[in-house]
Amino acid sequence: MTAQTMNRIDQRFAALKAQGRRALIPYITAGDPAPEHTVGFMHTLVEAGADVIELGVPFSDPMADGPVIQKACERALKHGVRLSHLFEMVREFRQTDSETPVVLMGYLNPVERIGLEAFADQAAEAGVDGVLIVDMPPEEADDVGPLLKARGLASIFLVAPTTSPARAATICAHGEGYIYYVSLKGVTGSATLNAEDVAAHLAPLREMTDLPLCVGFGIRDGASAAEVGKVADGVIVGSALINRVAENAERPEAIPAALKAVLGEMRQALDA
């Protein structure tokens, strides 16, 4: 991999910073509602204004996720979607999009099943740019981090409202790409967020890291995206998109327009 392909996330955030814009980072679960649609959805998200795509690895026990994403995982797993399929999807996406950063988001179990080194090799070869393993704290990342870094893959970590300052400092020291700040206590798709509260939590993180701070959980529409965009470097949206996939699971041809409607409104609001 060349330096250019290794560092799409950093390049994208540098370009956004130069433009004074905020990153819009959509999340979809790979293989939902069926695997043949995922790559098309990824291109749709880019057309609608996505700066980075988080591609969810389906898992049988997604403990950080609420019912919306749990059901998305179930729909994907019914089709037998595995990590190897995600690598194929990213490879196919890269045939026509060599610029949009792709982050794999999931849990440690599927990664350990294929082996850490094999995972890092295959992810890099497919064109993945970053990895967010929800249940791998930085203290346990000493094995994985160097493997990913050697292949140009960013290790991305979560910080929660309940994270202590000392622990947040550890996370920031290990993090690459961007810090994913979880705006709410609870699971994905939970209650409304408070932008002032988010701002208060982001301020000390800015003292600890130069990495972009991106906020997820609770961003539902253009208004909430714009509010968070005033205080964060990026907004991450998952459940609002997965809801549209679920509503149209029986007629997947309607999903691209539904995704564009949600994401397009957020893009407009962020750029306004």
UniProtKB/TrEMBL annotation:
<dbReference type="InterPro" id="IPR002028">
    <property type="entry name" value="Trp_synthase_suA"/>
</dbReference>
<protein>
    <recommendedName>
        <fullName>Tryptophan synthase alpha chain</fullName>
        <ecNumber>4.2.1.20</ecNumber>
    </recommendedName>
</protein>
<dbReference type="Pfam" id="PF00290">
    <property type="entry name" value="Trp_syntA"/>
</dbReference>
<dbReference type="InterPro" id="IPR013785">
    <property type="entry name" value="Aldolase_TIM"/>
</dbReference>
<comment type="function">
    <text>The alpha subunit is responsible for the aldol cleavage of indoleglycerol phosphate to indole and glyceraldehyde 3-phosphate.</text>
</comment>
<keyword id="KW-0822">Tryptophan biosynthesis</keyword>
<dbReference type="GO" id="GO:0004834">
    <property type="term" value="F:tryptophan synthase activity"/>
</dbReference>
<comment type="pathway">
    <text>Amino-acid biosynthesis; L-tryptophan biosynthesis; L-tryptophan from chorismate: step 5/5.</text>
</comment>
<keyword id="KW-0456">Lyase</keyword>
<dbReference type="InterPro" id="IPR018204">
    <property type="entry name" value="Trp_synthase_alpha_AS"/>
</dbReference>
<feature type="active site" description="Proton acceptor">
    <location>
        <position position="54"/>
    </location>
</feature>
<keyword id="KW-0028">Amino-acid biosynthesis</keyword>
<dbReference type="InterPro" id="IPR011060">
    <property type="entry name" value="RibuloseP-bd_barrel"/>
</dbReference>
<comment type="subunit">
    <text>Tetramer of two alpha and two beta chains.</text>
</comment>
<feature type="active site" description="Proton acceptor">
    <location>
        <position position="65"/>
    </location>
</feature>
<keyword id="KW-0057">Aromatic amino acid biosynthesis</keyword>
<comment type="similarity">
    <text>Belongs to the TrpA family.</text>
</comment>
<dbReference type="GO" id="GO:0005829">
    <property type="term" value="C:cytosol"/>
</dbReference>
